[in-house]
Amino acid sequence: MLDVEPACSARHRVTGRPDDDGGRARCADVIPSPTTGPGPSGLDAVGTVDAVVVGAGQAGLSAAWHLRRRGFVAPWEPATAGRRTFVVLDGEDGPGGAWRHRWKSLRMATVNKVHDLPGMALPTVDPAEPSRDAVPRYYAAYEREAGLPVVRPARVTRVTRVEPVDPDDGAAPLRVTLTDGRTLLARTVVNATGTWTKPFWPYYPGQETFRGRQLHTADYVRAEDFAGQHVVVVGGGISAVQLLAEISEVASTTWVTRREPVWRDDEFTQQAGHDAVALVDERVRAGLPPGSVVSVTGLILTPALRDAAARGVLVRRPMFERITPDGVAWADGTEQHADAILWATGFRAALDHLAPLHLRGPGGGIMMDGTRVVAEPRVQLVGYGPSASTIGANRAGRDAAREVARYLDALPIPAT
Ligand SMILES: Cc1cc2nc3c(=O)[nH]c(=O)nc-3n(C[C@H](O)[C@H](O)[C@H](O)COP(=O)(O)OP(=O)(O)OC[C@H]3O[C@@H](n4cnc5c(N)ncnc54)[C@H](O)[C@@H]3O)c2cc1C
């Protein structure tokens, strides 16, 4: 059952607008409500929604929970008059966000750490269980217990501004369009679309001539698929070294990175995490792209990686210059045969659907103030930049709900 925080143990609803209390929202309705919803086909009937959350991973669920806690209700719940409404649109076929797609060998014992969502702890799980089973199961229970109005599959293709009838009308909503062409109007959008759907593939000359298999981390299933082969693993991030270590148990490998990897042998303390987040936060406040996680954390030597190092697997070569039909070739003339090239080259924020809003500035990134997009206060980005971790996503969800409420509070009250 959902654990309602002590201050909210009494079952009561907020009748006014929750105060801005620095994140400690007053008790709203955290009592689960029916979330059967209208089904995707009924979305057309919901009218203008106060907040549309796009994405139901850790960030979207946290934002949704905090909206609910502030008294937001699903548009299809009975007696919504005078209450703020919200809906969560998720592109997946079921709960779990990107965790649905993690490779099977990424077990609960080998993930960095999946933090509890607000109000309901991750149950004790078998450390050997694949994270792609355990985390979606947790999210499914969470959606159900918290009564979150998640509609799926509902993939957003476009968010656009609606031309206001009165040009001074700052309250005009945004139009949210789904893959199948259906639209709904949103006073605010909390974007929580993660990165998994936007794998980054760099281009190297000759790439199209390669006769072996090329895949991205997002396509990786299991090391056994490469048994007896030679695999070139590209990338200097955490996923790259984890996959390199496990593939090297069944195949021969070559590891290439653009930059010399930065290993850290010390403990990754809370302070180190805090400092890493602060660096990314600084970048997005300045309107720069957030950059990779590893660029601020460094690579932590886990026992599995120490073992790989002892086997001589973590010997890094610089990037090759080109790809040949049979492998890869460096500028000095050396070549390496390869049966497969694994591009563990990371992901980018999945924000293509926000392109019509032209949020990117001259720095190439989106200038942020906390979770709020500076150029478009109707849009919050959660799970983006400094909040791209399960713990960061939790906090960002809370902050975004507060910003949404603040924005709605400031809207002119329509004349009756
Ligand atoms: C391999 C790997 C391992 C990781 N391990 C950890 C870890 O151990 N601990 C940790 O804290 N972090 C980890 N992370 C980072 C992790 O991804 C985040 O912490 C967190 O789970 C991401 O949550 P999210 O809600 O931002 O995104 P996601 O979980 O990706 O959820 C986004 C949701 O939005 C949906 N979506 C995307 N686009 C649209 C659209 N246009 N319309 C509608 N829906 C859309 C997606 O389908 C998905 O359901 C890892 C990342 C990777 C790549």
TrEMBL record:
InterPro entries (UniProt xref): Auxin_biosynth/cation_transpt (IPR050982), FAD/NAD-bd_sf (IPR036188)
Keyword Oxidoreductase attached: yes
Region described as Disordered: spans on this chain: 1-41
Residue ranges with Low complexity bias: 32-41
Keywords from the named record: Oxidoreductase
Pfam family, one: Pyr_redox_3
Gene3D superfamilies: FAD/NAD(P)-binding domain
Protein name per UniProt: Oxidoreductase
Species of origin: Luteimicrobium album
Biased composition (Basic and acidic residues): 16-27
